Task: structure prediction
Amino acid sequence: RFGNHEACSQGKLPYGSIEDDSECWHQQSRARPTFKMLKESLCELSVQSAFNLKNVKNKRINNKMPTIVHNTTDSRVQRKADARIDSPMSKESPLMKTTIICNFCNSYLPGLGKFIHNQTLTTLKLKKNHIGDTGLQYLAEALRSNQTLTTLGLSRNTIGNAGIQNLAAALEKNQALKDLSISYNDIEDIGVQYLAEALQGNQTLTRLNLRENHICHRGAQNLAEALQNNQALGTLQLETNQIGDKGGQHFAEALRTNQVLKILDLSCNNIGVAGAQYLARALENNKILATLSLRNNLIGDLGLQYLAEGIHNNQALTTLDLSENRICDVGVQYLAEALRNNQKLTTLDLRKNSIGSSGVQYLAEALRNNQTLTTAELDWNQRGHPGVQYLAEVLRNNQTLKALLHEDSSI
Result:
């Protein structure tokens, strides 16, 4: 046994531990948080980059050290308590071999895996913990019967198609999970197919983050087909995959009938001009989508011309991200014409393009009477001091627009 009972009773928290014990050493028995108490009252558990405490056993636990597990509870005793993980998750049994440490006296509270079976935990974040497919199998088994967990974060865990297959099977049974993040993993089209099949029947999940995986147009097709039947998913993040223009076409088809999706992020997917054209046609009639992110997709002036036509009469879209798309003055001219008629868009991101003074002038003229756009981001575009003058003149009369010009912008 290790630890300093006297220091703990005085309210100090030096590094220490009590192995194989289920109760902390706090002097007052009523203030001792037991494993049972944590299990029954824990609401939020966040495990990020779990480390071996042997490497830091001589370091004091203070606010500057990274919090590995954040414990948010409804208990008066535990409301301000944090917990920590004592070792990285093992490949053999990643959930059952981790240990919670109480910050009252840093005593070991074994059994992270048991928390998923409780009836109070609503948020579980396991970012960057080498969970892999095997670890996800254990977690998926628990999710089948869990009815309280609403947020699950599994980013950066080397999860592949096999793990996603198990997770998808759990989602078909689970009716509680609302927010699922599996970004920065190794999911391919076949893995997305498993997820899409689960989404066909799942009416609970509202947010799905698949950023930076290995999803191509076939995976996009499966997701798009699921969206035509799914009546719950409101946010879909697919940034930095490889869906291409065909993937853009599949999502455009889904947007024609979907009545739920409000946020769609397709940034960094090489959608190109053709993909932008498909999406533009869908925007003409879509009345639900509020945020569309198309950053870094090689759209160019021609692609923007199509999109401008799409938003001309659109009355749903409020945020449009077109940054890093090789847009020049000609493209902005098309967009400006659409903004003269559009009275819904509030945020427009045109950062890191090739917009010069002429483009800024087109935009400024369109915004003279526009009373809805509040944010126009034009950072990192081409040099042109007259552009600043055009915007300044608009700002004198427009009381809603805030032109955000980065200090390094050459406009």
